[in-house]
Design a protein that fits this description.
alpha+beta, Alpha-Beta Plaits, 2 domains, nine-stranded mixed sheet, 9 strands, 25% strand
Length: 248
């Protein structure tokens, strides 16, 4: 029987989502907790991987059990007391066997947080960047993302993918004065894509490259043409969507 769990986490203490030997990741922490409480080996499959120090407001994963859980609510209670405070499980619920946390997802949304005024309380959840920015130009450049679907220029070079095509569904900058937020939703993301996009769009905001230059970077399909990747601390996985009516 297949179960989904919905979780959120502060990525600062972890070496990303994906399980790796001899280091603590979000996946390894949840698998250890589930295996201990259910007294059987449990492996989970996430909707996607987040890198070291990247956070999630909403992440989904699925796992398999031979027999139904007698009380998912009680397991939820026990998990949240077992796991470190940096991980919170929101829900555990049964789903159809064909529903896959990763491959059934229809979109994912990320937000990247920039603070423009020094704040010691948000340093592990945002990127401090106080140089003057032309946010209007950044939004004009961002609009170009809807006109393209190959984002190789913003992908890490060493990554195992068959193609670099993504369909951008939402992308814009929200200016809150001392806080600047980049919103982006797509059917899939390449590894490092959001951080490279933000870094390149900041170059537009600084006037170092033009909006036309930004489009040429997209067309170049060359990571060396794009800007630097911004630090991971300000990046949040905000939402993962599935076909309507498929989640309980």
């Amino acid at each position: 029987m297949r179960y989904f769990l919905e979780c959120s986490y502060n990525g600062a203490p972890f070496h990303g989502w994906q399980i790796q030997p001899n280091i603590i990741t979000v996946q390894s922490a949840i698998e250890h907790a589930l295996s201990t409480l259910l007294r059987q080996p449990i492996e989970i499959v996430g909707s996607g991987r987040t890198d070291k120090r990247v956070h999630a407001r909403q992440q989904f994963a699925h796992f398999e059990l031979k027999t139904p859980l007698p009380d998912p609510t009680f397991l939820l209670f026990r998990l949240n007391h077992f796991l470190p405070f940096d991980i919170a499980i929101q829900r555990i619920f049964p789903v159809d066997d064909y529903l896959h946390a990763r491959f059934s997802a229809t979109s994912r949304k990320y937000q990247y947080y920039i603070i423009r005024k020094k704040d010691p309380f948000t340093q592990r959840m945002s990127y401090f960047f106080d140089l003057p920015l032309d946010v209007a130009a950044m939004n004009t450049a961002t609009d170009l993302l809807f006109q393209h679907d190959d984002f190789k220029s913003f992908s890490m070079v060493k990554t195992e993918v068959n193609h670099y095509h993504c369909r951008i569904m939402e992308a814009h900058w929200e200016d809150r004065g001392d806080e600047l937020i980049f919103h982006v939703r797509a059917d899939r993301f390449l590894r490092g894509m959001v951080r490279a996009l933000v870094g390149t769009l900041l170059e537009v905001g600084l006037g170092r490259i033009s909006v036309a230059d930004f489009e040429q970077i997209i067309l170049a399909k060359d990571r060396q043409k794009a800007g630097r990747a911004v630090p991971p601390d300000g990046l949040f996985l905000m939402e993962v969507t599935y076909p309507e009516g498929k989640l309980s």
